[in-house]
Each structure stands twice: as C-alpha cells, then as structure tokens.
Write a structure and sequence with these properties.
Strands 6, 7, 8, 9, 10, 11, 12 and 13 form an eight-stranded antiparallel β-sheet that branches. This protein is globular. The chain has eight helices and 26 strands. Helix content is 15%, strand content 23%.
Length: 518
C-alpha cells in the first residue's frame, strides 16, 4: 500500500514559535491531500516552515552542515542532492555538539592474522586503538544498502577519562531486515546505506574495531568480500533536554521515567521557544496533549473510550487504557534531522515486536540518550528518513514515541522489511537473545498494543493477513497470515526480537487482549 505523504499541516510558523508551555490542546490538524512525490522533494511540509524561514540556519544547523550529511537533502528548488561519502567528521567542537554529533571514520586494511590457516582474505578491515571525541554508540556502515556483510564486526572501547579498555564486543551484522520496504520512496531516496545494528557502549573516548569476512571453507573456497566503503560511526547523543518549566504557582513533574523518580517542583512561567519542526511534530499529537508536551499522560479505560470517540470513532469498547508515552520532545529528538514530511499508511492491523540489539548496558535514566543515538544513527549514518520504529520501550517499562507523525495515527515506519504497510513496530531497548526481558518491558508492550491496536479495531489475540512487500522470507505480493502481535522473525528470516523476548509474546497477547476487555 503506498504511503500517504502529508504535504502541509495546520500550523503556520516562522523559524521559531514562542508558545506558553501550558497552551490548551489544539484541534486535530485538518486532513490533507496525498502527494505522490518522494518526501524529500517537497520544499514545504510539516516541520520545515515556509522557505523564507529556512534560509538562515541556526547554530546547530550549521553544526550539521559541518558534519556533512550523507542523507539526501532537498534544495530550495526541490532537487535531491546526494553528497559523496563524507570524510571523517572531526571539525566539531564538544560545545557545538550539545545537540549530538557523529564521527565517521573510514576503515583501513588490517594486518593479516598470524594464523596462516585463516588465509589472507580473512585479514579484514578495521582501526587500531585511537582516541576520539566522546561518543556513546557505535556502528559500521557501507555504501551499498543491498550488499550484505558476511562476517563479523567487533569493537572495544575506553570509557571517557579512563585508561582501561573493554573486552571485544560483537556488533550485530544482520540489520538489513530493519528497513523501509523495497520500492518505497524512503528506500529509493538514494541516501540509504548498508549498516550493522548500532551498539550502545556508554560514554567513551577511545575505540578499536575489526571487521573480518567469513573464512573460506571446503564448500566455499573463496571468502565473500566485504562491502565497499566501510566506515565506523561514533555517535554522541548530546545533552538531555532541559526540564519542563511550569506556569507560576503550578507544580510539575518533569518527564520522569520509571525507576528514576523526580520530585515535583514549582517554577516561574517561562515562554518556551518551539522551532517550526518541533511545533509540527507536537501538533499531530494535539488531541492528546498540549503543544510542546514532553509526556502524553495515561488515561483510565473510561477516559480512553471517551477520547477514542474523537480520535478513532468505532474503537469502543475494545480498547485498552492509554498508557503514558514520553514524546519525542521528552526524549530530546532533534527535529531538524528527520525528513520534513510525515508518511502514513492506511491502518494499523498488526504490531511487530523487536529488540534494538544495542545491548543491555544502559540504565533507564540513559534511555533517552540511547534513543537519540539510535535516531541519529538511523538518519545520519544509515540514510533513513527518521527513527525507524514507531515506538520504543525501555527495561523499566517506559514507553516512547518513535517515528514522527502522531502516536494515535497510522505512521509508516521502517522496522520490518516487507511488512511496514498497515503495521506498527515496537522496539524493546536491549538484546534479548540469551537474556530474559524485564517483566516491566513486556507489560509495557501489552499496554501499548492494547491501546494502539484498539484504536484500529485489532484484536491482540487474533490473526491477520498481510501482503508482503518482499523480504528474505516471503516474496513480494504473497499473502501471509500472522498473529496480530508478531515478532520480527515472523515476517523475516531473522533472530530478532531475540529468543527470550519472542517467548514472551504469548503472554503479551493475552494481557493486551484482557486490557481491551476481550
């Protein structure tokens, strides 16, 4: 199903909007006509503001220009420009990188291993130990999005300010199945690159990487060559967003996360400046929370059913209570990174559950930083239009808005190759191949799906027939019957969402349906 691309939104603004934080909820943006043009070719769209508002870049935009964005950007004339592969991004200062930054380092041939039996082809590429500007997430990318990396990728890092190095850590190389569908505007943009899964390593300033091709064997006497243009991406998530101000005499609890309680404070009203991009991202949630909100609050089932009559008529009575959702503003998304348009599909008939494969060495307080890092890796390093998943869940059960476009809407994601149409993708932050997912995370998946699937009349314990857009498991056009709540591996030949998380999906379906009142 072709995505519906929004080309305008019911918010008109200059380069920045000065709005009181406690603005009343706005009415839903008016419906807009669909556009068949690729999203990056529209000179005016949600989040971009009028052309005149984009002529003078803000300081952090200048920082992005210095960073050399390999993702295709539309010129004012609407012509897609895809720069050549970027040189190492080493010109940014730490102060300029408060909104996040990416260092991109080309890999070099490694010395042949001492074991002659391995053969020269297995020498691979990499980088020797070196000092870098601080970063928290790593990944490896290459030029051709259709090429696969048959081999292994390992990194070790040094904590910022420290002297000791970590052990070698494996980076998940099979990541192509987390992507936009073949033939989609996002996939055909010319900016998409091949990439490993990202790995969260925490605040670090030293790195070493080695990429080895699969060794030759009697069945395959010649090793498969590594993809061209291998680069190491070092991502700094930038600073956490500032606490949310409150009107005079009113008490507010800033975007707090489970496991990290924040005491309420009373502050003086300070007008908040929203950029055009941030205002547009927030406006599509205007039925659910005030403009500029960092959190969409939880509702009771009765309140949810009343709200559903407005945002999804006909959803009653089978809809779960709306859970608390941390908005993109709440986790600090830089809205200048994403594509200007929002992309939609017709409905949400199923939910695919993933693990992010970024490792489990993060705290719930760090989850927003993990999200900002993945977001930057998806857009700046991999060439995607936005964060790939529709939602994310951390180990403490906090739920986060993912790809922009509105949490109650059918936003087209890039999470399950071949099955992004009419579905949603939920990523549980972490790696759950041999580690059990926390109960709080599984419960959050149940709560989220009970609400979101309920908006579209889907039964979490039911089955649904989806049409494949082409994947490594099902050919394009094949009709496939699946669980309404499925794991990524149900749509593609992949280990995701990890064996341990996949085993919990039966419980998630039962709990989700119960929350809907089924």
């Amino acid at each position: 199903m072709r995505a519906l691309l929004v080309t305008s939104v019911g918010v008109t603004c200059a380069a920045a909007l000065t709005l009181p934080l406690a603005a009343p909820a706005l009415s839903a943006p008016a419906a807009h006509s669909a556009s068949a043009r690729p999203p990056s070719l529209s000179p005016e769209s949600p989040g971009s503001g009028p052309p005149s508002a984009r002529t003078a870049p803000a300081p952090d935009e200048a920082n992005e220009a210095n960073e050399t964005n390999r993702r295709g950007e539309a010129s004012e004339g609407g012509v897609l420009e895809v720069p050549e592969a970027a040189p190492p991004r080493t010109g940014e200062t730490r102060a300029a990188a408060l909104a996040g930054s990416t260092q991109s380092l080309p890999l070099e041939p490694l010395a042949a291993p001492s074991d002659r039996a391995v053969g020269p082809a297995a020498s691979g590429q990499g980088l020797d130990r070196r000092t870098a500007r601080p970063f928290s997430l790593v990944g490896v990318v290459w030029d051709d999005a259709e090429a696969e990396l048959h081999g292994t990728v390992q990194v070790r890092t040094r904590a910022t300010g420290g002297t000791s190095w970590s052990d070698w850590q494996d980076v998940e190389t099979h990541n192509a199945e987390h992507a936009a569908d073949l033939g989609s505007a996002e996939r055909a943009s010319g900016a998409v690159r091949g990439a490993t899964a990202p790995l969260w390593v925490g605040d670090s300033d030293g790195v070493e990487v080695r990429v080895r091709p699969e060794a030759a064997d009697p069945q395959h006497p010649a090793a498969v060559p590594l993809p061209e243009g291998l680069r190491l991406e070092l991502v700094d998530p930038g600073a956490d967003p500032a606490p949310e101000p409150a009107p005079v005499g009113r008490t507010v609890t800033p975007a707090a996360f489970a496991g990290n309680p924040v005491p309420p404070t009373t502050t003086t009203a300070v007008p908040e400046v929203l950029t055009a991009e941030s205002a547009a991202t927030s406006a599509v949630n205007a039925d659910l929370a005030p403009l500029g909100a960092t959190v969409i609050p939880a509702l009771t089932k009765a309140e949810t059913e009343e709200e559903a009559a407005i945002v999804a008529a006909g959803a009653k009575p089978y809809i779960g209570p709306r859970p608390k959702i941390v908005t993109r503003k709440g986790w600090g998304a830089d809205e200048k990174l994403r594509e200007r348009n929002f992309a939609y599909t017709k409905s949400v008939k199923a939910a695919f559950v993933h693990h992010s494969a970024t490792g489990n060495n993060y705290t719930c307080k760090q989850a927003p930083s993990v999200l900002r890092s993945i977001y930057r890796y998806h857009v700046k390093s991999s060439g995607w239009r936005d964060f790939g998943y529709n939602f994310a869940v951390d180990k403490c059960g906090n739920i986060y808005e993912g790809r922009a476009g509105g949490v109650s809407k059918a936003v087209l994601g890039a999470h399950t190759l071949g099955f992004n149409t009419n579905t949603m993708g939920v990523a549980v932050l972490g790696t759950y191949s041999s580690t059990n997912p926390p109960a709080a995370a599984v419960t959050a998946v149940s709560k989220l799906t009970a609400w979101k699937l309920g908006l579209f009349g889907a039964n979490p314990k039911g089955k649904v027939t989806l049409v494949s857009g082409g994947s490594g498991k099902y050919s394009k056009g094949k009709k496939v019957k699946m669980n309404v709540i499925s794991g990524h591996r149900d749509g593609f030949a992949t280990e995701c969402p990890g064996a341990r998380l996949y085993k919990k999906l039966g419980k998630a379906r039962t709990s989700s349906a119960k929350l809907q009142g089924r």
